[in-house]
User: Which sequence fits this backbone?
């Protein structure tokens, strides 16, 4: 997994910097081309000559004392993965906030799309438990960064508690896993739908739902990070993966048109959007006035985009549906899975605390047409996205 992979090893200024020597050696022994990037603080604990001797090329320590006029850009764009061990609270905070105060943080911000980043924090227990540090780590995790939690043990000054750098072998295993996850969708075309549709009543009002699109956008970001060519059909204005194709729509009819256009060539289709089931049969061309009394609005069904997609499904294509339920989640989801003829369905109870629409977190059960199930407890929506694509990959690789 590591052979011929170009890995930037970031080392920041903490007492655990000496353990990064072992991480470096293990990466090199695994066949990786290791490029050390050290902060000024790191050089106070371990000399740059040590990493220059053990790594695949000399250690880089400054934005301004390098043969390359823009070293951070070259390092970030050419890296297959970046691992920071140890990652101090300062580096974590700067990375989360997008502040490039030195070569390491500038390199982290310049990492190319799809290249995994692994952080192995190390600090005193009080710092590790500080709300600001935990919030910064949660932010980075939502963006797809792998966090290798510190261990409990002896710390600097004789203290004992959580904050000790994870074992070098554990860190290297996390890098290997991140590289593996980053390649399992390589070469595949993935179509993701996101957000809730709006069906107009008049030029001002609409029939809609509470979907924020956060889960769909998290799915698109995860697919891109794992090497897929992503097309995102969305109704919301949220960040989307770099280099993806984005189609903005509003109504169910517009979404169906976009899915028809992109779905034929997609290897994986994930229908995470909350498409309105009904729309007004007639749309007023002017705003309906209150003085005219309560209007009578006749509704008609919207197109069943998922069913029509499955009817055209080609061999080798994987289709994933979503079921937002308020009761009997498994029963209703299983019925939808069978009725639609899809491969996987992701079901959740939108009334559960912290789950469903508008939240940053979710909890789901992923059901496969072969009868297998995977329950994913409450987690941020990027973690849910990882679980969904793990299930997709598992299904696609079954004999």
Assistant:
């Amino acid at each position: 997994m590591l052979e011929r992979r170009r890995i930037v090893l970031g080392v920041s200024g903490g007492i655990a910097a000496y353990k990064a020597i072992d991480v470096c050696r293990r990466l090199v022994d695994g066949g990786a081309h290791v490029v050390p990037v050290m902060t000024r603080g790191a050089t106070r604990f371990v000399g740059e000559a040590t990493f220059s001797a053990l790594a695949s090329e000399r250690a880089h320590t400054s934005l301004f004392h390098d043969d390359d006029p823009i070293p951070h850009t070259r390092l970030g764009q050419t890296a297959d993965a970046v691992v920071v061990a140890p990652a101090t609270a300062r580096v974590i905070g700067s990375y989360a906030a997008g502040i490039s105060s030195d070569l390491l943080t500038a390199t982290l911000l310049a990492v190319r799309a799809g290249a995994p980043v692994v952080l192995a924090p190390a600090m005193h227990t009080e710092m590790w438990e500080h709300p600001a540090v935990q919030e910064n780590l949660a932010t980075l995790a939502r963006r797809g960064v792998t966090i290798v939690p510190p261990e409990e043990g002896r710390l600097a000054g004789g203290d004992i508690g959580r904050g000790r750098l994870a074992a070098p072998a554990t860190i290297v295993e996390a890098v290997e896993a991140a590289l593996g996850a980053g390649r399992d969708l390589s070469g595949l075309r993935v179509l993701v739908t996101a957000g809730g549709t709006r069906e107009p009543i008049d030029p001002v009002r609409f029939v809609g739902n509470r979907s924020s699109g956060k889960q769909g956008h998290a799915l698109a970001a995860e697919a891109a990070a794992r090497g897929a060519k992503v097309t995102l059909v969305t109704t919301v204005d949220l960040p989307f993966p770099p280099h993806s194709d984005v189609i903005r729509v509003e109504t169910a009819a517009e979404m169906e048109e976009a899915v028809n256009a992109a779905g034929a060539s997609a290897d994986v289709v994930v229908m995470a959007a909350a498409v309105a089931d009904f729309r007004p049969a007639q749309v007023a061309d002017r705003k309906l006035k209150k003085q005219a009394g309560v209007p009578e609005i006749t509704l008609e069904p919207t197109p069943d985009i998922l069913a029509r997609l499955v009817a055209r499904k080609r061999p080798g294509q994987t289709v994933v549906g979503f079921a937002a339920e308020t009761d009997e989640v498994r029963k209703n989801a299983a019925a939808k899975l069978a009725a639609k003829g899809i491969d996987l369905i992701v079901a959740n109870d939108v009334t559960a605390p912290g789950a469903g629409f508008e939240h940053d977190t979710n909890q789901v059960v992923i059901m496969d047409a072969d009868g297998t199930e995977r329950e994913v407890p409450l987690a941020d929506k990027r973690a849910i996205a990882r679980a969904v694509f793990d299930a997709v990959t598992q299904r696609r690789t079954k004999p």
About this structure: The radius of gyration is 24 Å. Residues 189-396 form a domain with the Rossmann fold fold (CATH 3.40.50.10300). Residues 381-396 form the longest helix (16 residues).
